[in-house]
branched-chain-amino-acid transaminase (Algoriphagus yeomjeoni), 267 residues
Amino acid sequence: PFCFADGQIISSEKATLHPMDLGLIRGYGIFDFFRTVNFKPLFLESYLDRFLASAEKTFLPMDYSRAELRAIIHELIEKNNLKEGGIRMVLSGGVSPNHFSPAKGKLFIFAESLIFPAQEKYDKGIKLLSLEYVRPIAEIKTTNYAYPVWDSMRWKDAGAEDVIYHMNGILSESSRSNFFIVKDGIISTPDLHVLMGITRKHVIELAGDVQIRPISMQEALNADEAFITSTTKVLLPVTQIDEHEIGTGKPGSVSLGLLEKFRELEK
Ligand code: PDD
């Protein structure tokens, strides 16, 4: 596969990172991740908006304009013959003179094969394990996933597919997805300490009327339906949190209706 590194498109094995880069020694950097559908990047401008905003908010200089990034991405799709795949853009924290302050990072753009959840998970819904945690600077798409990567080793023992994070009983998001509930036909999603997911944004638009507000764990356990959204999962029904069944314990009609509507946007 080909990737973009050191200002050019090269074979991915040739890409290098300085060992003192803050991305490696401090976990400081930003990224974004989108899909191609039939060789076309889905919602590219929204992902570029977020990526450029992340760079600015983390004080990392970005040497490439939106138009340049777009051109590199299109060239990579062509070179990698990426019909249905993922593209990740990463801007590292850079090599810092004091090994701490944000520096001039290195930009990588590369193709990834997509790992979609099995159809069975959409049919049956998934279980989430609740854990107390809040992502640091959650609104920014940083590469800091140390706690989620670490706690993922506990999900399987709990029979859970993923996690729902809360702080003092107020929910935020899952490890790599946003969270929604449905109660009496009203759709709600947490407002604070969450990434402004591109899938979340489109689901909010499709639903038309979504309450964006604090949601307690108690409320989620009493909901009729729940689901998570992300670029790769799109919309995955949640039918259990810890030992509590959500609603009927089966994926709900509002969730499945929204998933169907989203599939239309992909065409
Ligand atoms: N994750 N919240 C977090 C913490 C995420 O990492 C992601 C995306 C989302 C969903 O955002 P979007 O709908 O824009 O994908 C929410 C990506 C897929 C990843 O970790 O690779």
